[in-house]
Design brief:
There is one protein chain. With 260 residues, the chain is of the alpha/beta class. It has one domain: Vaccinia Virus protein VP39 (Rossmann fold, 3-Layer(aba) Sandwich), CATH 3.40.50. Helix content is 28%, strand content 22%. It contains nine helices and ten strands. The strands form two sheets. A seven-stranded mixed β-sheet has the order 4-3-2-5-6-10-9, sandwiched between helices. Helix 6 crosses helix 8. The longest helix has 15 residues. The protein is globular, with a radius of gyration of 17 Å.
Length: 260
């Protein structure tokens, strides 16, 4: 499958030029993840290892309340944008690719560091690479989306600088992260593999000010910040969660622009 994915690069070299040298990698990004209160009995895995185990059972849709509330915010943001070339960083199984295609982009590329997750994607162009050393020329994309993956990145500044480098002037970056309330309450990300074994995925918490500083230092300008809560659900478990935790913000979404 690695050969199959890499062979697809030749289909868009006429649209997006690739770099032949890379900066040193930062902590690795990946696709969106499920979230639940901490399970201390679960084995804690680094993201790269975790996603290799999770890929076989990972759905290609927003399959939990956290992901759904995040998409309810991100989807309208993307719907207002127009692009020729769009990149989905941490694409995983590719749930945001159709939304990026709706921007009118003739080239939509999904990028993820997990080859196993990329094999779950169907019908879109994919590449296995690190978000902090993108294999693209400067100004290659008009829109970059990164959904719930910067929690896998230790150096937030390295991430935003690389996104800014790959954006064309006037281009848009839309990305989301787990809200700082996660760290404040000791929550964790968990999943069950194909054998039913529970695992916890490690992540790097980032404060809102960390995001704002990183965006500013990358030369980008914040256009919008959203901090949605899980508000609509008939699931008794979600209702119990809201009562226990007073329904804090679940995620934070940033929309930034590379202005002239």
């Amino acid at each position: 499958m690695k050969t199959t994915i890499n062979s697809q690069l030749s289909t868009f070299t006429s649209h997006v030029a690739y770099r032949t040298s890379h900066a040193a990698p930062c902590a690795s990004p990946a696709a969106p993840r499920i979230s639940r209160p901490a399970h201390r009995s679960a084995e804690v895995l680094p993201p790269r290892v975790a996603y290799e185990l999770w890929a076989d059972t990972y759905p290609a849709v927003a399959h939990n309340p956290l992901m759904r509330v995040e998409q309810e915010v991100v989807e309208p943001m993307l719907a207002k944008l127009r692009a020729r070339r769009a990149l989905d960083v941490g694409t995983g199984s590719g749930r945001y690719v159709p939304l990026l295609q709706s921007t009118g982009a003739s080239v939509v590329l999904g990028l993820d560091f997990s080859l196993a997750m990329l094999t779950r994607g169907i019908g879109h162009r994919r590449i296995c690479a690190d978000a902090c050393r993108l294999p693209f020329r400067r100004g290659a994309f008009d829109v970059i989306n990164a959904s719930l993956m910067v929690g896998d990145v230790a150096d937030l500044g390295a991430f935003t600088r690389e996104m800014a480098r790959a954006l064309a002037v006037g281009g848009h970056l839309v990305y989301s992260d787990f809200h700082p309330s996660w760290a404040e309450r000791g929550w964790s990300r968990t999943f069950r593999d194909a054998d039913g074994t529970l695992h916890e995925v490690s992540y790097h918490p980032h404060a809102i000010d960390d995001h704002l500083d990183a965006i500013e230092q990358a030369g980008l300008h914040v256009r919008a910040i959203r901090e949605p809560r899980v508000t609509r659900s008939f699931d008794p478990g979600i209702r119990a969660f809201r009562r226990r935790w007073n329904n804090p913000q679940a995620v934070v979404v940033f929309h930034a622009v590379k202005e002239p």
